[in-house]
Amino acid sequence: METCSEDQSRVETVNQLLLSYRCGPGQGARGSGTEREGPLSTVAIPRGGARRTPHLVSKVRPAADETLRIVLARLDDMKAEDTTTIDLRTDSAITDYMVVTSGRSNRHVGAVADRVLQDLREAGFAGLRVEGMPHCDWVLIDAGDVIVHIFRPETRAFYNLEKMWSRGRAGARQAS
Q1: What pLDDT, in 10s, does the model give residues 76-91?
Q2: For burial by CB atoms within 10 Å, which of 47, 92, 93, 150 has the most?
Q3: Residue 8: in which H helix or E strand, if any?
Q4: What is the CA radius of gyration of the chain?
Q5: Alpha-carbon span 81 to 104, nearest angstrom
Q6: Class (C level, CATH) for 64-174
Q7: Strands (E) located in the chain
Q8: Whole-Å CA distances, 3 to 7, 12, 66
């Protein structure tokens, strides 16, 4: 039986792995065709070349004013209450408009949010972000240029977003 010396059992890795199947348990018997000495071949992964760029989801995205028109029309159709639009074009890089409105109950808030989402998707919006749908106390719809907040009246009074965002601005307007 052949014994392994300390030099043979040491593994060195820099850019290649040296293997010896002569010693160690489970390495196969001599002459069985499983013996190998020397470096393992490495697979070269090409890093250069042309990179693929993803295709745009929507080639034409409606302007912020058109998005606002769609949102306000749906809120009016669904009988949302106390709709306020805050113009943030000169004050924020996050969005152009913020719409704050109320529904009468959790069910009404959820129905209004569903209808706004449905109409925005039909208009060609992809990747809309929605928060708060399971509870429907406060549903936030992020349509990029327009952010829509749909509250229950008690929740809206507690957070009072329109006061925070429209402080010192003449751009906030009541629409409803």
Answers
A1: 999 999 999 998 888 8
A2: 150
A3: helix 6-9
A4: 32
A5: 8
A6: alpha beta
A7: 18-20, 37-39, 81-87, 97-102, 129-131, 138-142, 146-151, 173-174
A8: 12, 20, 80
**37 contacts 19 by C-beta, under 8 angstroms:** yes
pTM score of the predicted model = 0.61
Q: At what angle do helices 106-122 and 64-77 cross, to 10 degrees?
A: 140
SS3 49: coil
In angstroms, the CA 35 to CA 50 distance is 41
Q: Where are the alpha helices (DSSP H) in 59-160?
A: 64-77, 106-122, 153-159
Q: Locate 80 and state its tokens.
A: 């949302």
Q: Comparing 28-37, 95-104, 129-138, which segment has the lowest mean pLDDT? A: 28-37
Phi/psi for 113 (5° steps) reads: -65, -45
- Cβ–Cβ < 8 Å for 90, 26: no
Secondary structure letter of residue 127 according to DSSP: S
Distances in whole angstroms, Cα of residue 135 to Cα of each of 4, 80, 104, 172: 67, 18, 14, 28
Q: Where are the domains of the chain?
A: 10-41, 64-174
DSSP-derived 3-state class of residue 17: strand
